[in-house]
What we know:
Oligomer: single chain
Amino acid sequence: xxxxxxxxxxxKENPSEAEIxxxxxxxxxxxxxxxxxxxxxxxxxxxxxxxxxxxxxxxxQNAIGCQELVMPTIQPADLWRESGRYDVxxxxxxxxxxxxERDMLYGPTNEEQITEIFAASVRSYRDLPKLLYHIQWxxxxxxxxxxxxxxxxxxxxxxxxxxxxxxxxxxxxxNKMFISxxxxxxxxxxxxxxxAADTGPIGGDMSHEFLILADTGESEIACxxxxxxxxxxxxxxxDGDLQPIVDDLTSRYAATDEKxxxxxxxxLGDDLVTARGIEVGHIFYFGTKYSEAMRARVTSEDGDEVxxxxxxxxxxxxxxxxxxxxxxxDENGIxxxxxxxxxxxxxxxxxxxxxxxxxxxxxxxxxxxxEGVEVLYDDRDTRAGVKFANMDLIGLPWxxxxxxxxxxxxxxxxKRRATGEREELSFDSVLAKMRG
Length: 436
């Protein structure tokens, strides 16, 4: 994409309404624009990142046999009355009426909707287990929306739901999601720490939240130092017995807020790590809370009627955009991990009116595109300092600078955004590096 044609309304100054780094940088980098309190339009650069994150989440859900569908954003209130949650959920639920005066709501989550679909469709143990998910915009009417996409009212979420014949099967589904989440975050360049959590309005008796470390995190966490050393670049048999792996991961101390234990922390000594953390996912096992209330039944192999065991599993897709920025930035702007960057490389033409420079840039742009490399080509007629500052602000992993001086020697400058390291390379070397 040529920057001269790209819609990228960057800002020079920090917006006064932005309280945290990710909010400031997303506004300055032209990723989002506020529509109303806690509700944002996603502009091309931000939407590109959002799609990258969404695709990683989708691929990892598919890898454990979770099947994608999509459910409505607007749900009938009667579904929530059936589960008993309509009157107790709280003012965060946006309650509305349609033209026929029927009570409706803008869904904050989908336990009721998916249970109704399941109850109307599944009758036999032969059809279980089932893992179903969708990636959909949600709405929760926060009393005080703040921090940009980190705590907005409208947000994109992956929510998945499991159905099993018994508690043992439900635990297997829970463990699959547990491992899937760690692999998902690892692919995004993040180390997520699983922590036992309260179940809140979802309900249930087993729950873990996943937090990444960031100086501006919303929670103060404490954990054993080895929790930060997990390596998920390894093969795991997702159909095998995952319980030993989950038990090992959860055996080390990791706690946030009210679940912290001063005595345990004192005993850990130098192994204790304290930091700020941002929640990026939450998983729940709640047994028959919804299936019982909504009369979901399946016939067992013995012909008995059984109430299925359930769990739900959420990842804040839009929230992850802000969380990654909070965890990966410097004083000059965003530093995107390769897997979620809106473009792999920024190509900078230092002198657009120099014919040799323009031809070299155009040819390099075409070759990179032919190799399938996503390129943002700054072909604008503006000062070099402005171009460099803009590239640092939007945080693309690589910057390729082509100017008349180096061009005479057949070389270009390649900069790694994360480290600031610069190399002078031939055109062919750059292409080979970007290729693999």
